[in-house]
Here is the input.
Amino acid sequence: MRKTHKISAAYLGLFMLFLYAPIAILILYSFNNSKGRVFTGFTLKWYRELFHDAAVLDSLMTTITVSLLAAVLSTIIGTMAAIGINRMKGTERSVIMKFTYLPILNPEIITGVSLMLLFVTSRSILNKIHMNFEFGMGTLIVAHVTFDVAYVILNVLPKIKQMDQSIVDAAMDLGCNPVQAFFKATIHEIKPGIVAGFLMALTFSMDDFVVSYFTAGVKYQPLSVLIYSMTKRRVSPEINALSTMIFVVVLAALVIWNALQIRKERQLRLEQSAAVKEGMR
Here is the structure.
């Protein structure tokens, strides 16, 4: 048993090293005094220069704005779509689900090129009728929504299937109209799926490069596109500093979220224990 435990611990250690060694190196070089690959000394100058680099800050703001807006729109559209799909039956539902999987299974390069062609065609048509249309924030948001919606649907739909329909019926029996029952009962029951879908949409939007590369235009560039353009020369150490800050923020958010969940579960267990003791009396 001890030998098996040691092997398992060694395997886990190697696995964690494989995952986090690149991030550790990136964090280390964000404090490197030089731009080279040799660590020459500790410095914070790249963090200071980061906040004075307008191009990087603009790209960061574009990434955050596009990701948040795309995630919110995708969550709304995907939740409504999941509710509609759940009410379908037979062949109709099967066909719709196959189309839902397409944005996930389809290679990103095809999605990016097809959206670029769509926007180019739309621009030529709209410009003929004197309506200005350019690649930018709008095209980025539309492009991200096209692949984010599928992830929201696939997160929300299982929760809708698990939901007890009698809860909605009870809400309507107690005086709620269909809209009130939807917001007070349905949304409450499927909220974990909605939150998971939103977080997945947000993550994939912030992480996307291929689709953004074909739909960003010149004025608005997400971080992924900006960093790619830097690789043709040399990636600035400021990017190491920015990546470190993003990693720390995500890690802190994850720790806080887990702490809140543990606290919530502990509180629930205490309430259940108190209810049992009260029932025994």
